[in-house]
Structure formats: structure tokens, C-alpha cells
Amino acid sequence: MTARFFHATSIHGAEQITLDSDTSHHAAQVLRLRQGDRVTLFDGTGGEFFGYIAQISKSACVVKIEHYQPIERESPLRITLAQAVCANEKMDWIIQKAVEQGIVRIQPLITGRTLVRLTEERARKRGLHWQKIIISACEQCGRNRIPQLLPAIPLSHWLEKKLMRKQKNNNPSGHDIILSPVARLRLTELSPPESGESITLLTGPEGGFTEEETGAVLHAGFIPIRLGNRILRTESAALAAIAAAQTLWGDY
Questions:
Q1: pTM
Q2: I need a surface site. Which of 16, 49, 108, 166 has the fewest CB within 10 A?
Q3: Helices (H) then strands (E): counts for the chain
Q4: What is the strand order of the sheet 48-56 is part of?
Q5: Which CATH number belongs to the domain containing residue 141 in this structure?
Q6: Domain endpoint, select from 21, 50, 69
Q7: Residues 219 and 244 reside in one and the same domain
Q8: Residues 127 and 240 in one domain
Q9: Can you give the residue range of the structural domain that contains 202?
Q10: Residue 249: in which H helix or E strand, if any?
Q11: Exposure of 40 in the CB half-sphere (CA atoms within 13 A)
Q12: What is the pLDDT along the chain (252 residues), one digit of tens a residue?
């Protein structure tokens, strides 16, 4: 397969692009690409650029752009994943696979039972790490638009913002869903979202939400939904829900 790379600066047609140092190192040292090899670039604004490697070394890779194609691989279903922060490897896995499945936004949340404690500096570093995972997942799966990663915030602050937005909009559209093993409703019982409407999927941490948090979420208008008769781990629940929603209303 032709190697795909994200380029953070806007690309304007036929030109020569010098990839950043990390990407150049990956192209030269990991993928072992050589001068003349075909590559695909995208800048996150949609579509992709086709070209070839004009120059390459351990520290710099220059790509000659030949042509552009307005290729889109985005799902018609706009899903925001609101995920309680969990252990490092689990969180990485959730973000990577959620991007591959087409979500458009990720909101990391701090809850009462969140096991990972993030200082301001650690939260900043984790955000940079998650952003790299998002970009890598887009390079791998063919997406040409980068999902938005929001800063990690406490669940209570996020719910306050949700309520304020709903109060400003008397007719909120889409579905706000909390995944719960004790819920009665299933996704198939919800009305399909109309064109342009969005879905927010809220998933708890390893130990689940506290009673107070669950009450606050329901007060904010979230609909409890169950996924079958079994209790899923947090890293399974989010991905199963996204896949189910994409199957029902998206492009699966």
C-alpha cells in the first residue's frame, strides 16, 4: 500500500513539501522509503494529495505533489465520544479504534472513579500523546479529516456546558446517550438521527459512574442505553456502541 502521511500545514496544489522531522524519520527509518516511491499526503481539510519522494534522508523527506483528489471517507453520522479517562493502554486503544470507526470528536472526562490522576502538566502531555494516536489512526484508515480532541475536563463541568447549550437551543437535535448495563432501551428503539444531527456517546471509567454522577447525567437529558445482556468493559462498550450506531444509521 502507498504510504499516507499527515501534513499539518495547508497544501496548495503542485509543490514540494518537506515533511516534519518525526514524519521524515518514520518514512526513512521505519518504512524504509526511497527516492521515487509514491506517497499520499493530507492536511486535514479534506481530500488527499498524490506525489512521490523527491529527496529523502534520515532527517528530511521532500515530497513532490503531482495532483489532488477530493476524496472523502467520513461517515454521514457525526459521533462525539465522551470517554471517562482510563488506564493508559486502554485509553490509547479506545481513541485509536474510535477514530478508525469514524467518530468526529473525542471528549476525555475525569470522573469520581477515574483511576488515572492527571495534573495539569500530565494532562497536557497525555493530550499531545492522544493527538498523535488520532493522526496515526487517520493515516492508517484513510480518513482525510482529523477528529477534534478536546481537553480533559471533569464530568460535572462538561455537563454544565451541555446544559447551557441546551438552554440556548430550545430544540436540541440528535441523541445524548449514556451506556448503562441496567438500561431498558436499546439503540434500535431510538429514532434515527436526521441529516446533520449528531450523537454523543458517554462511557464511564473502569468502576462505572457514581450514583451522583449518574443522576447528574440523567438530569442533563441523556438517554440510558444498554448493549445486550452482558456487562462490557469500558474499552469494549464505547467501541461496540460506535459500531452499532454506524451499522444502524451510518456507513457500515
A1: 0.93
A2: 16
A3: 6, 12
A4: 3-6, 38-42, 48-56, 61-69, 16-18
A5: 3.40.1280.10
A6: 69
A7: yes
A8: yes
A9: 78-249
A10: helix 234-249
A11: 20
A12: 799 999 999 998 778 999 999 999 999 999 999 999 999 999 999 999 999 999 999 889 999 999 999 999 999 999 999 999 998 799 999 999 999 999 999 999 999 888 777 888 888 999 999 999 999 999 999 999 999 999 999 999 999 988 888 777 765 568 999 999 889 999 999 998 887 789 999 999 988 899 999 999 999 999 999 998 888 998 999 999 999 999 999 998
- The CATH number of the domain holding residue 59 is 2.40.240.20
Q: In sequence order, which residues have a C-beta less than 8 Å from that of residue 137 and are 6 or more positions away? A: 95, 96, 97, 99, 100, 143
The residue among 12, 108, 22 whose CA lies nearest residue 59 is: 22
- Same domain as 170, residue 115: yes
